[in-house]
Specification:
It is built from 14 helices and six strands. With about 290 residues, the chain is an alpha+beta fold. The protein folds into two domains: about 200 residues, Transcription factor LuxR-like, autoinducer-binding domain (Beta-Lactamase), CATH 3.30.450.80; about 70 residues, Winged helix-like DNA-binding domain superfamily/Winged helix DNA-binding domain (Arc Repressor Mutant, subunit A, Orthogonal Bundle). It has a six-stranded antiparallel beta sheet, covered by helices on one side. A hairpin with a 4-residue loop joins β1 and β2. The longest helix has 27 residues. This is LuxR C-terminal-related transcriptional regulator. InterPro entries: Sig_transdc_resp-reg_C-effctor (IPR016032), Tscrpt_reg_LuxR_C (IPR000792), WH-like_DNA-bd_sf (IPR036388). It holds the Pfam family GerE. Keywords: DNA-binding, Transcription, Transcription regulation.
């Protein structure tokens, strides 16, 4: 691992320390050593957060503002139909308190617990508790919320009914872990983008391209002439020229060099869909709010 990937503050904390401080240092080092991309990051956080705050279930949710899409991944297997019911109920009740909204401005740098806002009697009477959390056995929860560019990331720990609330010490450890989660998230995005092939970049940034246009654009990016492409695809040169003209119009590119530049550089991020679509079939959705854990 390159030392530059780990902040000096993290390297200065020795994982050989004793007690809770040593446990936090170990989790920070583990997270940086894993060097996850966006697809591996949830699993790394499931393990680290689960150990750090002794959570029974860890949730990882991303909300993408431009598209309104989100994904929500849990550290345990669950029933998809039950998840959909819970999500619908969450959508009905999420505006009842800022804690449920996962607003970065409200959370700030804090790790927040449901017990910070509701007594035992108040919580069990809440519609969101009765319809979303308690039916799945989730009783206590604590979350951190981070924003990076067009994404909001929420990572939370849950404890089942019958267990004690998260302690102040556990809250403090999750708060101390938060900046490292955000840094790892930014690095994971960079790794994911850097691994994209020219064809991937064109496909993701310009979904309006047809499969054949994408194929032609990829060959252009590889320096092939219209005649070369016609031979490779087994079509006429005029057909290739028609595809090239359509590609220019859809990409806003003027000439073959412009197509190659677009294919070999990261396109404007605002044109990209959520990056979790790349390479993995994850549960996701579309709606006005973030996914419930």
């Amino acid at each position: 691992m390159n030392d530059d990937a780990m902040p000096a503050a993290a390297r200065a904390i020795t994982p050989k320390g004793s007690g809770r401080e040593g446990e936090l240092a170990q989790e920070i080092v583990r997270l940086y050593e894993a060097e996850p991309d966006l697809l591996a990051l949830p699993r790394a956080l499931f393990a680290g957060v689960g150990r750090l705050i002794d959570a029974d279930v860890v949730t990882y949710s991303e909300f993408h503002h431009s598209s309104g899409e989100f994904r929500s991944v849990l550290s345990v297997e669950d029933d998809p139909s039950r998840r959909n019911q819970a999500l619908a109920a969450f959508g009905r009740h999420m505006h009842s308190h800022p804690f449920w909204l996962g607003d970065p401005a409200f959370f700030g740098d804090r790790a927040l617990r449901e017990s910070d806002f509701f007594s035992e009697e108040e919580y069990v009477a809440l519609p969101i508790a009765r319809e979303v959390f308690l039916p799945s056995g989730s009783r206590h929860m604590m979350s951190i919320v981070m924003q990076h560019e067009d994404y909001v990331l929420t990572v939370g720990g849950h404890r089942v009914v019958g267990r004690e609330p998260f302690s102040d010490a556990q809250r403090d450890r999750l708060e101390a872990y938060r900046p490292h989660v955000l840094r790892s998230y930014r690095q994971a995005r960079q790794r994911t983008l850097a691994a994209l092939t020219p064809t991937d970049r064109l496909r993701i940034a310009f979904p309006e391209l047809t499969p054949r246009q994408l194929e032609v654009a990829s060959w252009i990016a590889n320096g092939k002439s219209n005649e070369d492409i016609a031979t490779i695809l087994g079509v006429g040169v005029d057909t290739v020229k028609a595809h090239v003209k359509a590609i220019h119009a859809k990409l806003g590119a003027d000439g073959r060099l412009a197509i190659a530049v677009i294919a070999y550089t990261i396109p404007p991020f605002e044109r990209m869909p959520p990056l979790w679509r790349i390479g993995e079939d994850v549960w996701a959705g579309h709606g006005p709010g973030r996914a419930a854990g």
